[in-house]
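Suppose you are handed a protein chain with no further information: no name, no annotation, nothing but its sequence. What can you learn? This example shows the usual starting point.
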Amino acid sequence: MNFASDNSTIVAPEIFDAIARTNSGFALAYGNDDLTRALERRMSEVFEREVATFLVATGTAANALAVAQYSQPWSAVLCHEAAHLMTDEAGAPEFFGGGVKLVGIPGDNGKIAPEALAHTSGRGRGVPHSVIPAVVSLSQSTEFGTVYRSEEVRALAEVAHARGLAVHMDGARLANAIARNNGSLADTTWKAGVDVLSFGATKNGALAAEAVIFFDPARAAGMASRRKRGGQLFSKHRFFAAQFLAWLEGDLWLRLAHHANNAASKLADGLQAAGLPPVWTVEANEVFVQLPVAADARLRAAGAAYVSWPEEFLPAGTVARPQHKLIRLVTSFATTDADIEKFCVIARGT
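A reasonable first move is to predict its three-dimensional structure. Written in structure tokens, the prediction is:
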């Protein structure tokens, strides 16, 4: 019953096998190998346009390097107040951005509203007194497991671009968002106005595979040096490319994400039946509930793994219930029906 994180799973067998197949012979280092070239072509195919692709090992590196590419040290990066960029990157965006300032924007369901973006991007005294917004970063899916629709991204991008801001998407769980919306990679990103994407495979079956995707390759000028300086240019680069190629082959990425999303829906339904309704609508692979402390004790004793969540982020109008705690449950491609059923039975106390 491990619902702690989709980072805690095994590597998908298809990806593990691809790594093993790659583990023979010699290849040029630092991304000068045939697999990396093949992946670069494949990325342009799946995104339906020419893109510039830079592989890195972690989502933190992908996010920090991406926003730094569009920023100056005196810039501001606007994001949701609960975004991973804001709460879980240990200052990496500020570090790689040379002091760039993160500005959090409140919003229901983990999303930024166009009106809030317009208001926040227009605040301050301007040059030289205030940081100048340069990037808006959108988490897809959000930290609360909700999903931006393409039209929502487009509305935000219109506000951002009208003010000269680039649009970054933190796509650590983009696969889950697309699996829920039945859209395409192109429709959800550049066709909706996204300029640069952190494309994550690690939470969805890979060992360590993230990519920074520039939809205008000209805007990637200098990124090769930025990645090297950031310690993210790996010598045995082909093993990162092999993971992505296997992940994209035959839409494996979508199948894995569909399994995780369906598991989250089943878990939410089971908890709802046990009198524990989800706090936010379950749209990707995360479920948040207010769990009685007695049920928490039973589940912990039974070996269940999950994460407590700050109650300050409860939606407006939702009251923190006495003798309850807000928890986050994350499903993955490896989540089983048996674990879901067992968790719900123990939570129910029967």
